[in-house]
Amino acid sequence: MAARRGFHSTRAQLASPYHYPEGPRSNLPFNPLTKWFALRYWSFMALGFGAPFLVAAWQTLKDQ
């Protein structure tokens, strides 16, 4: 009969070459603490939301 191995008996693999820094905002590809982050963020969101409406207006108003 084999004993069941619990999670508490498994040693953590701390020597992994794939260990990245941990903590808040460490896994983001951008820095939200910069001075112009809010302006860039809301500009990007407005462009993404408004693009379908701008394309629809352009298609409706262009000459045929």
Give me the strand/helix succession: H
- Integer-rounded radius of gyration: 25 Å
How many DSSP H or I helices?
1
Percentage of residues in helical conformation: 25-40%
Question: How would you state the average pLDDT, rounded?
Answer: 83
Uncertain runs are: none
Oligomer: single chain
Molecular shape: elongated
First and last CA, distance: 82 Å
Strand content: under 5%
- The tally of strands reads 0
Biggest β-sheet, characterized?
Answer: none
Question: What structural category characterises the helix and strand content?
Answer: mainly alpha
Short description:
The chain has 64 residues and is mostly helical.
Description:
- This protein is mostly helical.
- The chain is 39% helix and 0% strand.
- It is elongated.
- The chain starts with 36 loop residues before the first helix and ends with a helix.
- The model has no long low-confidence stretch (mean pLDDT 83).
Name its key features:
64 residues, mainly alpha, 1 helix, elongated
Blueprint (SSEs and pairs):
Layout: H1 37-61
